[in-house]
Each structure stands twice: as C-alpha cells, then as structure tokens.
C-alpha cells in the first residue's frame, strides 16, 4: 500500500540531527502541508516520489518527529493540573458584575486553607484564573526565566535569578488557554488533520522555536559572539503578546483647527476598560496599553527619550498618586455616594528622604468651588475657598500644629517622633530628611491649566492671541462656579458691604496660590512666628496636565523677585504627571468638600456654598477661627519672645498675622514683583473678615 511505502521511505530519510542545523520556515511548512493534503485528498492522484536528503527533507520529517518528542503531548491546563494535585476541590460562584452584554464573573476555590478568586468574562475563564492563582501559590519552576521564555512570554533583562519568585507570575499559565493560531500560517489539509496539527504542532511550534533560539544564543556565547541587543517592544506589542486579539475603539475625536487634535482610544482587557488620550490614535493606543499593563501585569514602560533619572521620578510620582488614592478610598467607605464622588482630589504625602516604605498621607481633600459672598463671616468661621489644593494645604496646617505640640510636650520620647527640631530660641524647623509631596488629580485652576490639551475651546488663531496677551497672568475664580478669568489691570478693591449687596466675591486661582506657597511657604503667617518656611518638594498632576507650561508659570513669576529674607527662598518643586492619566469623573461638580488630616477618625464634609459643616452648620475645623484658637494655645508655650504682641485677651487675628514681620516683608516684595512684570495685582478679601478677636 502507498501508506506503508511512504512510512518506510520516511523512516529511511529520518535524520534527527537536522533539527540543530536547519531553521523552520513558515512558507516551507505551508507548502509541505498543502502537498500532504493533495496526497490524501484524492485517491486518483499518483503517489509522490520519496523525499531525498538534500531536498529540504527535514521539513517533512518534522511532522513525524513530533510524535516521539515529549513536547507532542497536549499540555494540561491549570484546572486539570490542580485537580491532579488536589482532587475533589469545590469551586463556588462569588459574584457577577458588569452589564448584561459584558458580564464579569468571579469564582473562588479553597486550596491549602487559602482562598483564591479569579475573574473573567465567562465562568470557565474565571474558574481557570482561580486555578492558575492556586497553582502559583505552591508551584515554582526551578528555571522560571527559561520557562517563561519558552512559553512565549516577555523576558526581563534585569531579572534577579536568585529570587525565590517567578519573574512573571501573572503570565505563567498563559499558554494553558486555548487560542487561535497567531503565527500567520494557513494550511490546506483536511479538517481532521488540521485539528490534529493545531492541537499539537501549532501549540509547540513557538516552544521549539524559542528552544532553538536558546541553543543558538548559547553557541554564540561559547564562541565569543555577542548578540545584538533587542529593540524594546512598544506597550501595544507587549499587551498583544499577553492578551492577543485585543481590539481598540476610538471613543472620541476632537479637532480644534487643523493642527490641534486629540483622540481617545479604549481597550477591554479581562473585563476592564482602559482609556488613553493623545494627539494621534497611535499615541492614544499606546497610553491605553500602558494603563492596562500597569494595572493588570504591573509592567511599566518608559516613554521614548526619557532618561533613567526621569523614569525613577516617574515611578515615585505614580507611587504618590497610589498612596493618596488608596487612602481616600479607605476613608470614603462609609460615606454616601454623593460625598464620595469628586472631580478634584488633592493630597499631601510626607516622606523621610525619598523612601516610600515609610511614606504617610498626612492631608487630603476634595472640592472645586468657593463660598457665596452672602455667607462671608466677620468672625472667621467659614472656609472661603473649598478647592481641593487649598483645603489640602489647610489640612496640612493642622498636622503641623500637632507636630509642634508633640515637640513641646514634656515627654522626651515625643521629641523624637516630631518632625520638628529646635533651630534657635523659640524657633523650629523641619528635620533635614522630611519632605512633603502634593498630588492633584487635575491641573490647578488658573494659568497652569490654560495650555492643557483638554481645555482649548477656541479656534487656533484666537487661542494663540489669548495666550500671548495673558500668559502667566494672575487669574481669579468665579463665585459659585468653575473656571477662572484674568484680573483687571489695577485690581479691584473688595469691600464688605459691596459683597453683601451682591458684588461678586473674588478669589485668586489655585495656580496663583501655589506660586505664592513656593515663595512664602505652606505654613502661612501665623505658624511663621515659630517655624521656618515649609515648602513642597514635588507636585504631581493627574489629568488635564501640561507640566511644561505649569513649570514655566511657576518660574516666570519668580524672575524679578530679588534677594529674599533669611530662611526664605525661591522654591521650585519637582513637577510630574502620571504614566497613566488619572480617571476624571464626568458630570456636574459636587457642592461639598471633604477634608482629612492624619489623626482624624473620619472625614469632615463642608458645604462649599456656605463654608460650614454640611451636617450641623457649625464652623469647619479648617476655618480661620479654629486654626487661630489652636495657634493661641501654642503661643502660650513659646510667647516669651513675642513681646511685641498685645495681651492674649485682646489679640486680633489680623494683628497676629501682621506681627510676623519677615513673612509680611517677603509677601509685599512678591506682590510688587508681580506688578512690575505686568502679571497683575493680587486681589485681597475685605479686611473686615480678619478683624475678629478670640473669646477667652
């Protein structure tokens, strides 16, 4: 018979040594299978002549060699392997979330006393994921890097081969899932033969190819040949290797003129949707892939042209963001959805040097609005500005007061816990290794947000003219609304009766206030009686960011400042965005602002329109009166050097602030520099709101 004859001929031509001396080509493989199909598809065709040794015979022999190789055994998926190791396990349905057309199932299994939960778009995939997690908890490959490389996963050039952990635990069992052929090969054999080949040959072709590559690399190393460095793969390519077959959808396209365009691309991975925005669809896809890689596989890729130092600080900025976000999520767990929802979140993180292992979130807040003019208080019992950046800084003041009180306690063990040390008599400063880092979910309102790619709403010509005319100009917030407008040339003078009669209350923008903190410090006038200026070490912006423009704004306003008093300086914090843009909640801004300081049991909710607590209408713990009361208690302990102050029973808030002479001198010097550079005049609130006394 023809079949027996062919088998005998193939046995005569079989040469296993060809595996090491020849490469496998897809075109040859395709022609081979086409000829096999032609041979078996019609009984009337003549039998082809036997293959010869020098006629690329090893390609035909490969098909038969697979039957005797150990690789030809069909791989067992995670469920089968786990059942063999731990028979009788029970899988239980935990939850089903997501819309009807795209559900997300969650299935759990208990192994060795531990519960492993897997999620997926189907129950089968969720069950498979749970089994993978269970296997990874007690199975480790002795040669994990080679195993990952052989299974087609990415390789980490800086992997620690002495580590007890696998290099890529999230992708260890990726090849167990059946997937369509992705090598671009098309076959013209019968259906039965195609199924056999797809289950055996195609599953292990990649494994064989990588094995041969390892052999070639080993021979090159032995021969002194250094292989060429691999070109780093793009985030889209990496994600496609981990989850092949993904489809990207363009959610929106904005074109503001011929040269200003932005695209929003989205991709669904493992039941989660990741979005990216960019000036082109390619950049938007790259950003979406970066978000997915970081969230699902903890893989971070550096943008092109970024140095190692920049990448290190990028990781640091991302860590600051995650610390603030996780702290906020833990605090809003018991709040109503209306209070938990926010459009702007700000937080301040304290580190010792730049060590994130002991980093602490010391203050955070939300909010995007200011008080209505009719609710102004002449007793300092309201919060005028409820923007997140401003209230986060006021929450930090409470932390600084607590640390000073800790240092002034009579217990020596408290002195070491405080972040302050004695500098001079009745003067204190931060420890040398203490740094504060602010995170803001959106660019600060004002000039720092004007060049954001999301904020351009005019045509190209008019927007350029607007930028030239008001670049780096001071801007004020809109009462009971969002957005800013440039200050008038001479700056309006706000009066108490005018505001009460309906004139708009003017509040300086957050960009302007941050530039002020970079000169005067975060501590304010009252605390400057006791401590040296406290400055931000870094500022991280989540979305709507243009850190280049924000940096120019902060630096330009310090150009003509001149020499400053001792202990004051022109601070330039490190600026950074996030590697993946923070998600910005759409919809109308909330009318409440929440705040929290390290040591507080819960969040405080403030009505942004009235500036008071939402639940009781009582003064907020961030208002002027409350902070002044705390300062007065602290002043009693160190007032021996403050002989120029009036007796405590007659002390006025405005007088206490004006008594901080070095602070006031630098402030007036900075105001003059703004006017000299043509950036505008700083608009102050009516003086009556600070002319209140403490009731002692």
Automatic annotation (TrEMBL):
<feature type="domain" description="A to I editase">
    <location>
        <begin position="363"/>
        <end position="692"/>
    </location>
</feature>
<dbReference type="GO" id="GO:0003725">
    <property type="term" value="F:double-stranded RNA binding"/>
</dbReference>
<dbReference type="GO" id="GO:0005737">
    <property type="term" value="C:cytoplasm"/>
</dbReference>
<dbReference type="InterPro" id="IPR014720">
    <property type="entry name" value="dsRBD_dom"/>
</dbReference>
<dbReference type="GO" id="GO:0006382">
    <property type="term" value="P:adenosine to inosine editing"/>
</dbReference>
<dbReference type="InterPro" id="IPR002466">
    <property type="entry name" value="A_deamin"/>
</dbReference>
<keyword id="KW-0694">RNA-binding</keyword>
<dbReference type="InterPro" id="IPR044460">
    <property type="entry name" value="ADAR3_DSRM_1"/>
</dbReference>
<dbReference type="Pfam" id="PF00035">
    <property type="entry name" value="dsrm"/>
</dbReference>
<dbReference type="Pfam" id="PF02137">
    <property type="entry name" value="A_deamin"/>
</dbReference>
<dbReference type="GO" id="GO:0003726">
    <property type="term" value="F:double-stranded RNA adenosine deaminase activity"/>
</dbReference>
<protein>
    <submittedName>
        <fullName>Adenosine deaminase RNA specific B2 (inactive)</fullName>
    </submittedName>
</protein>
<dbReference type="GO" id="GO:0006396">
    <property type="term" value="P:RNA processing"/>
</dbReference>
<dbReference type="GO" id="GO:0005730">
    <property type="term" value="C:nucleolus"/>
</dbReference>
<feature type="domain" description="DRBM">
    <location>
        <begin position="74"/>
        <end position="140"/>
    </location>
</feature>
<feature type="domain" description="DRBM">
    <location>
        <begin position="234"/>
        <end position="298"/>
    </location>
</feature>
<dbReference type="GO" id="GO:0008251">
    <property type="term" value="F:tRNA-specific adenosine deaminase activity"/>
</dbReference>
